[in-house]
């Protein structure tokens, strides 16, 4: 199977910037860690692809976290990605189920409901950048487009797609971001508008052309600037799990020592479990006091 990759392009006389990504393997790796319903899989796939595409705008050690806080049965979801192509995702209630839409598509808006999309960017500056907006539709792609318009004032089109077979295997996943640069002409805006009226399904485009050829299909003069592999990778560690225990208050730690005689910290993103013995907990307790 092809390795997932992210591509960056300039097109339309360098007035438009395009990012495209394939994230089929990302999703397959995610599924090895988490049991999840098809609608939850579609939602987290869109959010992880969106995070990878947005991380394409970062440099070196920068990273970003997309969080959806919502009142729908999915309970909330988040995805974190960095400029090296690593991404991880988390769904609060991954086993939720909602009926399909009338047209047979997975009903992500019904799973998500209403809420906010927040973006936190850890840039190479002292203060992290934070922005947020209300959810536009709960489709996630439209919510990210709306975020760019409202919070960063950059005209942006986001297309995210996942194709799931009847046996729930992943046929394709990925998407694109099209951004109008400050020098974009009226013609460039009109071109993108006419393009969008012709694109029915991002996942069909991805399946037919792949993430790179899809962009040449949409923009005849597209110029590839860079491409790099992307993957699902969790950065959790025993040290991070220990830091969580260190931040607990004294009473909670006492209860773990005297009642449970142990503790287990589970990573929200990959479900990896870190086990701590009574002795280790006592040591953490001593370090605190
Ligand atoms: Zn993890």
Describe this structure in words.
This protein has 289 residues and is α+β, with helices and mostly antiparallel strands. The protein is 36% helix and 30% strand. The strands form three sheets. The protein has a six-stranded mixed beta sheet, covered by helices on one side. Strands 8-9-2-1-10 form a five-stranded antiparallel beta sheet, sandwiched between helices. Strands 12-13 form a two-stranded antiparallel ribbon.
Structure described in brief:
With 289 residues, the protein is an alpha+beta fold. Helix content is 36%, strand content 30%.
The number of helical runs is: 9
β content, as a range? Answer: 25-35%
- What's the CATH topology label of the largest domain? Hsp33 domain
- Please name the CATH architecture of the largest domain: 3-Layer(bab) Sandwich
Q: Briefly, what CATH class of the largest domain?
A: Alpha Beta
* Shape designation: globular
Low-pLDDT stretches are none
Q: Percent helix among the residues?
A: 25-40%
User: Average pLDDT, to the nearest integer?
Assistant: 93
Which structural category fits the helices and strands? alpha+beta
CATH superfamily of the largest domain: Hsp33 domain
The beta-strand count equals 13
The radius of gyration is 21 Å
Order of helices and strands: EEHHEEEHEEHEEHHEEHHEEH
Distance between the termini: 53 Å
